[in-house]
Structure formats: structure tokens, C-alpha cells
Amino acid sequence: MEKLPASTGWQWVKQGFALFRKQPGGMSMLFLGYMFCMLAVSIVPVLGQLLPVILVPVFSVAFVQGCLNIDQGKRVLPSLLISGFRKPAFPSLFGLGVLYILMAIVAIGASTLVDDGLLWKLVTGQLTEDAARAAIPDSRLGLGILLAIVLYVPAAMAFCFAAPLIYWRKTGLGKALFFSFFAVWRSLSAFIVFAATWFAISVVTSQLLAVIFGRTPLMMQLMMPLSMILTIIMHCSFYAAYRQIFGVPADESKTVSLDKN
Questions:
Q1: Is the peptide bond before 5 cis (omega within 30 degrees of 0)?
Q2: What is the model's pTM?
Q3: What whole-number distance in Å separates Cα of residue 159 and Cα of residue 61?
Q4: What residues contact 152, with CB distance under 8 A and at least 6 apart?
Q5: Angle, to 10 degrees, between the axis of helix 89-110 and the axis of helix 56-71?
Q6: Tell me: the pLDDT tens digits for 113-165?
Q7: Per-residue CA distances from 243 to 117, 121, 240, 248 (Å)
Q8: Which of 12, 79, 89, 100 has a CB 3.0–4.6 Å from the CB of 240, allowing a cystine?
Q9: C-alpha separations of 124 from 11, 105, 199 in Å
């Protein structure tokens, strides 16, 4: 893993847009299928609030596999949604999702040390909208959010490439987290540019819609498909980053045929 210059982060964003332009319909259908699956999972009794988050790494494999299909000149089909459910990757991907929730709980829980539990109550829905508005001005919510972010950033670095490493490289959960963390760490400036670029794109697009259409229902209706498209392109950008750092994954179908020969 070589250290990459900061400008590489911008290149990943551009490559993400280029990948999406090749098969926008296929990637959009994949995302809609993902949203439908998340909706179905959310109605599961008791676990309906946790499963959609736990299964994020499992379903994220579908999007990077879709990008690999584009690289290989193949069609992106909704059937890719089941990619992460195949063995031997599924147990580790599921464990990654559980770890994701645990780290979020630790980070948000730690914020109670400085904001008297306000962030925790907001996230868990323990405060009504009126109560939250009354409590926020005199609270240290900003400090609580900052502490939660500082604690969660190292975990986010470890989670960044863990899912594709588990799926394509067949690495264990611990090794995937280790290699992902140090891949981000070695090219931290590139990832800062990457994150800053996507933040700027999100802010500019939302503000542009607000200027053109105002704070109207039409603006909100347009924001939904735009957010969907930007989310898909962000997944494509993450694939571009993985491809440069870890190399293009091997075509498994070709590998199998060569082994048979």
C-alpha cells in the first residue's frame, strides 16, 4: 500500500462519477432494490431497528461488486444484492455490522460525559421535538457531538474497506479491519480531500435546489432522487479508492474456469 497524494481523493470522486455514467440504470435499480430490502427488514419484530444497520456491510458488497461488473463490461443486475449473503463472507460481514453498532453505541455513549446525555437522548428518540429545542441552546451538545466524532473516526477508518476485503480477499474480520485502517492512515490526506469534496457536493447541490425552488415540497421531492444518485456515486468512488489501493479484484468466474482446466 503506497502513500498517495492528497489530490488522489479528488480523482476518486471523478472516477466514481465516470463509473456511474456507464450504467446509471443498473446501479439505480440496485439501490432501489437495496432500499426495498431495508424496508422489509425494518418490519421484523424486535430486531427491526437494528437489522438494517447490521446488514449495511452485507449489502454494501453489492455496490462494489456492481462497480467491478462495470469495470469488466458486465451488466449490473439486482441479483447482486445477495452477493454478501454467500459463504464464507456472510458471517464476517454480519459481524462487521454488529461491531459497527457497538462502536456507535460506545462513541455516542461517551458523549454523555460532557453533554449530560443529550446526544444519546436525541439519537434514541427519548426527547420530543419541543423538548429538544428547549434543551439544545443551554446544553453542551456541540461538545458531545465533537467527542463522539473523535472517538468514531478511527473506527470509521477501520470499517472503510473492511467489507470488500472480507468479500474479495477472503480475509478474516480482524485482518480486514487492520488493513483498512492502515490503508486510510497511509493516505490520510487523500481521504480528507475525498470527504471534503463529497461534503461540498452535498452542500452545494442542496443549496442550489433551495435557491431555485425555495423551501417547498417540490424541492424536497427533487432532493430524494438526487440524494439517491449521489449516494450511489459515493459508493462508486469508494470502489475507485479500493481499486487503486488494493488493486482490481480478480474475476472469480475466470479463476474457477482456469482451476478446472
A1: no
A2: 0.86
A3: 13
A4: 103, 104, 107
A5: 120
A6: 887 777 887 877 777 766 767 777 767 778 888 888 888 999 999 999 999 99
A7: 41, 40, 5, 5
A8: 12
A9: 38, 10, 25
